[in-house]
Design the sequence.
């Protein structure tokens, strides 16, 4: 039986419609049967890729390209520096680690990113913090002094608890409280090296120490020398000396060690980058 053009079009349309309906029926049945396994597979694959390539698969977290420090946050005897603006995260970290003696570079490498991130957060000279840390703990994370001072920044338990309580009372967001996924992404190697629970403890100790140092700097009118002595001798002793016109920092063994370490870290940068030094007060 011959079909007219109109009939042929109608038949073709019906055939196409039936074919599409068959396809829809197939896909609808397929997804209703396999949607949970497929979703699980995609989710598992995402986490697996995230674990292998945390820089790429970051679940919405973003990291800026360079560390950003205001000019007035770099103090002690370092003035203007374009080092951080001219180097990426990884480049800045690698170059700073290379400034230390080879025998301690491995220890410095384990803490350099947390130190720089937290110093940037609180706008504190990271070279100063590294110099204090080198003097206090030699970058040994588990060390406890004879007097009971603990961790990288060697804080006394009472000072640690008081400072932490102040931060929480004043709603100062603490880096270690930001959740496991954030810490995994932001701290990469440190997270893989220590694990979540241990990293939380180390970050908290480090941030409390940095925040305490920052507050000493404010208390002593941005004088890094007085703040350094106060970190070792205590703020009340230091203020008492100043109030009674007694010397602070003269022939001070602790301050001299911090200054020596600071100079060791920054002397190479002063020769290769835009660094100016401010004479000692």
Sequence:
């Amino acid at each position: 039986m011959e079909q007219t053009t109109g009939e042929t079009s109608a038949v073709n349309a019906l055939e196409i419609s039936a074919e599409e309906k068959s396809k829809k029926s197939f896909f609808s049945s397929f997804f209703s049967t396999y949607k949970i396994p497929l979703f699980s597979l995609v989710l598992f694959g995402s986490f697996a890729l995230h674990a292998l390539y945390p820089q790429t698969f970051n679940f919405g977290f973003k990291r800026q390209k360079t560390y950003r420090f205001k000019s007035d946050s770099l103090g002690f005897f370092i003035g203007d520096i374009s080092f951080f603006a001219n180097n990426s995260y990884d480049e800045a970290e690698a170059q700073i680690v290379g400034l230390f003696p080879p025998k301690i570079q491995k220890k410095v490498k384990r803490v350099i990113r947390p130190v720089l991130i937290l110093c940037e957060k609180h706008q504190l000279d990271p070279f100063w913090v590294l110099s204090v840390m080198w003097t206090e703990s030699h970058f040994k994370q588990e060390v406890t002094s004879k007097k009971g001072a603990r961790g990288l920044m060697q804080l006394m338990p009472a000072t640690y608890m008081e400072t932490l309580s102040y931060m929480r009372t004043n709603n100062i967001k603490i880096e270690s409280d930001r959740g496991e996924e954030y810490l995994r992404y932001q701290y990469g190697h440190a997270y893989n090296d220590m694990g979540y629970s241990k990293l939380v403890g180390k970050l908290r100790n480090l941030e409390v120490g940095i925040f305490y140092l920052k507050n000493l700097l404010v208390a002593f009118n941005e004088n890094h020398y007085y703040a350094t002595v106060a970190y070792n001798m205590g703020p009340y002793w230091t203020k008492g000396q100043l109030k009674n016109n007694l010397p602070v920092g003269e022939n001070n063994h602790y301050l001299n060690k911090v200054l020596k370490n600071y100079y060791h870290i920054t002397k190479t940068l002063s020769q290769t980058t835009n660094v100016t030094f401010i004479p000692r007060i």
User: Anything to note?
Assistant: The longest helix spans residues 5-52. Confidence is low (pLDDT under 50) at residues 2-18, 49-59. The chain has two domains: 1-52, 71-277.
